[in-house]
Design goal:
Blueprint (H helix, E strand, L loop, with lengths): L1 E7 H20 L4 E7 L2 H8 L6 E4 L5 H6 L8 H7 L5 H4 L5 E5 L19 E5 L9 E9 L10
């Protein structure tokens, strides 16, 4: 299964070690094929990961970058963080072969093989943010994405 994670150049220094661990455990333990959506210089990312890391790098800016840059900074809103976070919305535009892919934030450690084939969400699957039965907020840090193009009014 393909695994996607996203970040931008401004987050790279802070999350470099996390990302190296995520990539290595995705490959060696989880049996995943790593794909990184990166807003920055791909050569810099490859240097951080190590040149032998079998990673697909997709250089991309968020399609929402205009709206992100037009939004004023506040204590609860950072343009830089938003520019990296909204990169996950680009995954269905990038992935053209597989129907389902796993997305996680880059600060994960895979502890066992990932087997999600029985799950077939209509759009995506996620878990609640804090409480197991409270769905007013969900955790967007781990998502199973259905990236198949969906025509309007198409029943699945």
């Amino acid at each position: 299964m393909k695994w996607y994670s996203c970040l931008n150049a401004s987050a790279l220094d802070r999350y470099a070690e996390h990302l190296r661990v995520a990539v290595r455990t995705a490959i060696d333990i989880a049996g995943l094929e790593p794909h990184l959506v990166f807003d920055g210089e791909a050569d810099r990312l490859r240097a951080i990961l190590g040149h032998d890391a079998p990673v697909h790098i997709h250089s991309r800016r968020s399609g929402l970058i205009g709206a992100i840059e037009a939004t004023p900074e506040t204590p609860d809103w950072s343009r830089s963080i938003a520019a990296g976070a909204f990169l996950r919305l680009e995954i269905p535009l990038i992935e053209t072969k597989d129907e389902f892919v796993l997305y996680t934030d880059c600060d994960v450690l895979f502890a066992r093989r990932v087997e999600l084939s029985p799950l077939r969400p209509r759009f995506f699957a996620a878990a609640p943010q804090h409480e197991p039965h409270e769905w007013s907020q969900f955790c967007s840090g781990v998502l199973l994405l259905n990236v198949r193009p969906c025509a309007p009014n198409m029943s699945r």
